[in-house]
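pinging the channel bc i need a second pair of eyes. not urgent but kinda urgent?? the chain im working w is below, pasted from the shared doc
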Amino acid sequence: MFKINENYLKLPGSYLFSTIGRKVREYKAANPDKDVISLGIGDVTKPLAPSVIKALHDAVDEMGNPDTFKGYAPDLGYEFLRNAIRDNDYKARGVDIDIDEIFISDGAKSDSGNIGDIFSKDNKIAVCDPVYPVYVDTNAMAGRTGDYNLETEKWSNVIYMPCTKETGFAPEIPLENPDIIYLCFPNNPTGATITKDALQEWVDYALKIGACIIYDAAYEAYISEEDVPHSIYECEGAKACAIEIRSFSKNAGFTGTRLGFTVVPKELKKGNVMLRDLWARRHGTKFNGAPYIIQRAGEAVYSKEGKRETREQVAYYMENARIIRESLKEAGYTVYGGVNAPYIWLDTNGASSWEFFDTLLEKANVVGTPGSGFGPSGEGYFRLTAFGTRENTIEALERIKKI
């Protein structure tokens, strides 16, 4: 008789945002007259940039012409997109990355979960707490996290690195050495970031103990302050210890079109084995590539007009973040983030995260994300996103201030 992956049965409840979606649907069904505004899930609301739309249309026309039709994409992705990524995201910042170290995918979430395929089950992971749930949940599915303790809300074989207001919502080097370290900056959910010197300390630590850093830079386009690195490869030695994951979802609004990439440098090795080769084999075996038309759209993001248009979109969301941050401060809340990231992390003033969620939904008809859903250190906090429309953002804050 067949057997199932029983690691799935160890997962507590459903995926965080699935739980939020269910609760909102139930509330709307019971209160059909209520106008609910969502500042919860990090989904964009601005339409794709004009230059991206044009690239999509042009690529669709190509697919209808026998002379320009494209079938399967190359394993790593089309060179036109990988060249654009190399030149604009790395070479322009003084970082030397080869195009065959860049792997095009259908998004950072997929890569965040799939990257574990190239690592042994015996590796021990370290994660920030609070943390993007995908990092932990996908390792749990792989059987790498041990058992879940309902009382502590922690996995037995995971090293948790508390990110609290006392630490500036940044992790500190753990007492126990991990094999794999997950870092996300600018951070989801807290909106915190890290200086280049501080990130260099993590690189030096990983090199010293032989650990691999999985660096999620999905929100790098939102960085506004100096001395905040856009890539971990700006740090010396990082190519020998780090994998970087990026997304087109937040910098260019591709949440519905799905495009991302992962960089695995050739210098990153275990003995004589390059992790880049393992990821290439995994990529070629289990993934048939992002669609040609979407990769052409991604290329357009790096055009002169594409850069200008997507910068304007990022600025729009960051103005929303400023409005949320300042409005909450005026209302007496203690808030963090919203400067280098489109997330605002607020103190719930003694209420539990889910109590605050229920209050906001029922009394203000506004949806956010309970901090406890990101890990035990997120209890007592709440995340709001700046990805709403300007009108909904202003209206939501007016409602919150009336509570």
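so The radius of gyration is 21 Å. and The first helix runs from residue 16 to 30. — does that match what u expected or am i reading it wrong
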